Each structure stands twice: as C-alpha cells, then as structure tokens.
Amino acid sequence: MTDGHDELTRDEIRAREALRSLPAPTADPAFRARLKGDFVRGTIAEAPAPRVLELPRRWPWLGWAAGAAAAAAALVLVPLLNSGPRWQVMGLEGPGPVRVGGREIAADAIAGLPARLRASVWIEVSAGSQLDLVLPGVAVMQITGGTTATLPASPGRWYGRLMESSLERGEVRFSTGPAFEGVRLAVVTREARAEVVGTTFAVVSDSIGSCTCVFEGAVRLVPHGAAGEVIREGTHRYLLRGGAFARAEPLPPMEVMKLGMLRDQADSTLQR
Amino acid sequence: LTAPDSGRPAGVDRGGWPPFPRELLERVRRREPEALDSFFEHYFDRVFALVARLLGDRTRAEDVTQEVFLNVHRHLERLDPARDPAPWLYTVATNACRDVWRSGAFKLERRSVPVEDEGGPLPLASSTPGPERELLTAERARRVQEAIDRLPPEQREAVLLHDYEGLDHQRVADLTGVNHAAARKRYSRALRALAASLKDVLG
User: Could you tell me which of B191, B55, B24, B86 has the C-alpha nearest to residue A18?
Assistant: First the structure.
C-alpha cells in the first residue's frame, strides 16, 4: 500500500503546489477570544443547546413539552442576543421625500424614518436629495438623489455577518468603522457584485453599467457568473452592461472629494 | 462521535497536526481551565483553517468551528489520554462540514460567498507596505480557493486533507470512511480538476 502517485502532469504538480502553499485563513480575533473564553469556562455548552430536564417516565409528554419550550425560547433568545446595532439617520439633505418600503416620508417627518429602517427594505431617495445613514461603530451609508437600493442588514454578533445591499439604480457610498472587523459587505447591481472587507468606496449603477470607485482599501468586483477583478485604491472601473470590463482609470476629482468627505464624516461618527 | 482507529500508532503520519502534550490530556478530560486553555490554543487555528478551506466561507467557518468546539467540550470524557486527539478532531470537523454541505441553504449560497482573502481583511493600501504584491497573492489564493469550492465535496475533502493538511491516503481513507483505493481515486480526480481550473492562473 503505497502513498506515492502515478506520474503527475505539469499542471497537476502546479495545482498541488498552489494548494500546498495556500496560507491558513485566520479567524476574527474577537470571535476567537469569545469562543476561547466560553470553551475554558464551560459556558460554550450552555447557550446553543439547552439541556432538557429529565422528567418522570409516567409523563413522557412533559419531556417533549419542556424540549419544545426550550427550543422556542432559544428561537426567540438567540436572534435577540445576536442582533447588532440599528440603523440611524444622520441627515437628509434636500427637499425629499424619501420612500422606504413603498411608504413616502416627507423631509419634515424624518423623525419617523428610523423605525422603518429594517434589513433589506427598499429605499428611494428623490432627485436633489441625499440620505446619510449610520450603523453605529460599523459603517456609514450615503444614498444620493435618484437612487433605489436596499438597506443592508445589521451584522450579528456571532452569525449573519454579511451585509448586502442591492442597487437598482443610482449611487451608494460606504465607509466602514472599527466594529466592521470580521464583517463582509457586498453591493449587488444587475451586472456584478462588489465585495469589500474594510474600505471607503462607491458603486454607481447607470445606463452604461456599474462603476465601482475605491477611495481606500480594495474592492473585488465579481460579474454575475464570471471571474472577478480587484479594483485598487484611487481607481474606478466600469463593468459594462454587456459584461465587459472597461479599463481602470484614476478616480474623478469629484468622486475623490465626495468619498473624502464621507471618510471624514465616518471618522468622526464612527470614532475611528 | 468516536475517534477513528486507523490501526496504527498515533503520530506516524508524514503530516497532520503536531501532537498535544499527553500529560495535559487527563487534565483536559477533567475540564481544568488551564488545560482547556492549552488545548484550545493548540487546536483552534488548525481547526478553523481546515474548516474555512473546506467550506470556502469565513463566516460559516466560524459557525462550524464553534460547533466543533462545542461537540468537543460535551464529549471531553471520551478523550483517551493515551492517544493523539487530532484524528478525533479531524473527524468532528469534517463531519460538521459535511452537515453544512448537505444543507439547502449552503447549496444556494456557496456560489456567491468565497473566502475573500487570506489571513484577515484586505489591507488598506495606505497603511500596509507592498499592497500590490499582497493583493496579487491574495487574488491568486482566492482563485485557488474558488477552484477548490467547485469540486464535489468528497473530492474537496480528499485533496485538502492530503495536500493542505499533509495526511497520507490511508489516514484520509480512515477519516472519510472509504478504502485506500477510493481515497486515492478521489484525490487524483480532484487534482486533475484543479489543474484544469487553474491552468490559466498558474500557467
């Protein structure tokens, strides 16, 4: 019983070496520290699977009832404990109105907006206005006039750490904060999906295609059903409606100014 | 949840995880905090890396790693102080990944959530030396991971356990519940598929 291999082709040897040289992915330090604490203290065995009480055999249904009650309690409690911060309104510039989940909210009734800011709700900002939202500690989102997009979910403490916004048309800008660590953010347009880990960037969806502008960090732009490209800091790149990438170009001065202002705003709001 | 018996003494593989100090295992069984601390430090990063490569998704890897350590904690009394716990952990981790692969949610999501980079968040170019090179390295690693993600689960297991973890085929066979020849065949098919997928990237 040998562990050797039949003769490998050159491509197979290269693939094997590429696989062997893959670096080890590392976990989010906060997750690691929390899990370690739970493991060492023994509290890891408590939260995810509550122990069912042993009950006398003559009432077996009580065991099922207790189990069902415990499961129902876990179904309610775990999502509650996992939930992250709520979206808040930083400001609405311009005359408005804003449509959230199909309901129109006038500029002078903006106080009622936070209650409607739920995950995946569609937000439409009318032309000439701009809505700035903040997820405390995590990210600032700017939605410009004429934009229709969904609000990303607030990332959970332990699971559900993907924030995703669908951009139907218009422009959204994001800048991330210190609590963003370990969270993924993606903006999906009809052409592609822009994924980031921590950065300041904008995605524009217009009649030509999707344009991704990266002020800080890097964004991976993945066309639906095709391989992606990394958009580097200080550049922007169009993915055309037909699926082809345009050449990467330096950021236009106006976008540098807008994203720079958003970054500065995020620095103070998110206490970076 | 029992440690598979490969029929050979522990620690003779050419690869795999380094053994945990035997003198601490009895204390781990007794759930002494210091010993649990050492056990966690010894295995956490290795379990997480394996699970993240198998699943190709960092967030889900965190969930599964938590499940692995929860299972381990619940069954610590089954640890045999005379044996290396690594095969047991491999089994718990790969079983947990298989549960994920079988779930409908994973099948729906996996096409859009690859591991986005290696070793942590993408670096901010303004604060990290050599960002271009790091990006290119991360990009290549991402392409390799995407090729791994496209493999059928049993081939993914075979190639990662053999080439990434450094286990021999017999050990892979023991862990995956097939015979030696089947483990080798899965590995050969996986490597052939990877070579075809990565030809443009590595050529």
Answer: B191
